[in-house]
Specification:
3 helices, three-stranded parallel β-sheet
């Protein structure tokens, strides 16, 4: 399988928990603890799926989706 998942959440425990469950299933999990670093990673790397928190202090998950769509990284909707 070896698909890359980008996990974006301001809570480290949630990132660790998601990675703990998804990594044994064969996914490569990349953890980012802020919206901005997640967006930057998504712009420059090839990823298959993004899982992100909707409520983050810096910007919402919806705003992250909007920023990524502006950069035309993904053609599908969030």
């Amino acid at each position: 399988m070896n698909q890359t998942l980008l996990l974006i959440d301001d809570e480290e425990r949630m990132l660790d928990l998601l990675s703990l469950y998804l990594s044994p299933l064969g996914y490569t999990c990349v953890k980012k603890s802020s919206a901005r670093t997640g967006i930057e990673y998504a712009i420059h790397q090839n990823i298959d799926l993004i899982l992100l928190d909707v409520m983050m202090p810096e910007m919402s998950g919806w705003d992250v989706c909007t920023e990524i769509k502006k950069k035309k990284i993904f053609q599908s909707s969030c």
